[in-house]
Design brief:
2 domains; alpha/beta; single chain; Rossmann fold; 9 helices; about 260 residues; 8-stranded mixed β-sheet
Length: about 260
């Protein structure tokens, strides 16, 4: 395995990507969320790519326009389809033995892949897709119930309640919100569903059960969707050792299929 850095064009901008080489004909394209660099926080994405490549699968990750080493306008995740298409073409050119590419995105990286209708990829791994339309939107009732279920299992939280350190008014307001009927799926959630409904390749949804973005996605999505896999006690970026191993195994299962 070796690590190569390269540049490629996207609508007049120059983007920078990194290829972790391997011999398999199936590769992984990583689409980062938000303004995350292709290396990831504390180089976590780089280490992750190295482990997938060590298992035999080439990995390509890149900085989208306006982030990290790439220039051009930094738009939202709704504008990322050209970046993904350009990265996929660069990946195929740099690793000509690759005939099948699976895309993995977390948070709005997952949403970007869905809005791009799979972006010409052969398979998708979509973790904690972003379905929240407003940053200040009230959390779904399922999220509030999960929060209080965890709080009631915490002796320290119970002590704070019994000693008057918790606002009773706010507590009752939250319990009232938890009891309300779930709202209909957001417009964004519906757009994401339409984006992948015609996708012919395999799709796997991954949900970190302690992540509110994942909880919001699960609340908005079809409860009977058998493509969903849940990781207990995992947070948004799967940083825990057990959840990192779980994430790697989930992705390797799709790559090996």
């Amino acid at each position: 395995m070796s690590r190569q850095h390269l540049t490629f064009a996207c609508e007049g901008a120059t983007l920078v990507g990194t290829l972790d080489t391997a011999q398999d004909a199936t590769g992984l394209l990583i689409v980062t969320g938000g303004n995350e660099l292709r290396s990831g926080a504390w180089s976590g994405q780089a280490r992750f790519a190295g482990r997938i490549a060590a298992a035999g699968f080439p990995v390509f990750r890149f900085d989208h326009r306006g982030v990290g080493d790439s220039d051009g306008p930094n738009g939202g995740f709704e504008t990322r389809a050209p970046d993904i298409a350009a990265a996929l073409a660069a990946f195929r050119a740099a690793a000509p033995q690759v005939t099948r590419v699976v895309g993995w995105g977390n948070c709005d990286g997952a949403a970007a892949l869905m809005l791009a209708r799979g972006a010409g990829l052969d398979g998708l791994v979509l973790s904690n897709p972003w379905t929240i339309e407003e940053d200040d939107a009230a959390p779904p009732p399922e999220v509030i119930r999960d929060h209080y279920k965890r709080r009631l299992a915490d002796p320290a939280a119970i002590r704070r309640l019994l000693t008057g350190q918790v606002s009773v008014g706010k507590l009752f307001a939250s319990l009232r919100d938890a009891a309300r009927k779930p709202p209909p799926p957001s417009t964004l959630a519906q757009e994401l569903a339409r984006g992948v409904e015609g996708f012919s390749g395999p799709i796997r949804f991954l949900a970190a059960e302690r992540d509110r973005t994942a909880q919001a996605f699960l609340a908005a999505w079809d409860k009977a969707d058998t493509r969903i896999r849940r990781c207990p006690e995992a947070t948004h970026s799967f940083v825990e050792s057990h959840s990192q191993e779980w994430l790697i195994e989930q992705i390797l299962e799709v790559l090996r299929a």
